[in-house]
Amino acid sequence: MDTDRIARHFDARRSRRGVIGGTAAGLAALALGRTAAQDATPAGTADAGGGPPPATPGEDRAFMFVQTFASGSFHPNPHGGTPDARGTPTTGGGAAYLLTLAGHHGETIYFSDRPDRVFGEAPTQRFLAGLDFAPANPPNAALVAQTGTGDNVVVLELIEPAYAADAGTVTYGAELLASYQGEGLAHVAEQQLDTALPETFGRASLFIDDCPALTDCWRPSGPFEVPIPMEPLPGGRVGMCWSWSDYGCTPCDGRGRGYYNDRCNNEIKRCRDEFGDPWCFAG
Questions:
Q1: What is the model's pTM?
Q2: 221 and 204 inside one domain
Q3: Can you spell out the DSSP letters for 56-92?
């Protein structure tokens, strides 16, 4: 992968929860060369036993994630908008499009900025399970794809991925975004010339935004359908932090996610009255 090509798209920017900084060249090196600046702190993997301690309660460390691919395709999702008629999950979670990316090496690169400058690689299967790509609050991403006319940049929401490790392919449900309101991908979003991708394209890099915050209480609307928002989360928005040690997003304040699920069910009358059982969840 040509790191100079990616470097042209990024410089110091803020994530949706904090600062993602450093030079564009350093960012590209972290993402694609799997190397780091001299003052970076390698996180390694959980098996290696190295790396910095996990974020302490109240610490709002911001991360960004990068996956690279040899080629890809972008097609309308035949199951877009509805779950499968048999009530079973479908690839892409009912999103309007399917983004299929091939030639993946099996690792997702993650990195934060100052003061820690943590970086490392997470097994893609564990990363996909830990970030939360549910339709209720999917993460945003910027895809930089090589096409016959040059680089094409689009901003997307990513939903319910499926990873085939043996084939080296990742398939995401995708929704095209005409505009981007966050900060982590702001620079690349400015370079989005349209909201379309060719059906097939060459080398690609997918830059995925930080952990989505918990903002609302939701209830299921049926098997594998998009949940329905009930009311804002009691106590307000809760930032979520990436944990390299268990490859997942957890509340930055140190409380488990179950604590906020309980608040939804205990403090929102509709959750109790409409269901009896505590089925509402924070998202």
A1: 0.74
A2: no
A3: PTT----EEEEEEESEEEEEE-TTTTS--TTS---TT
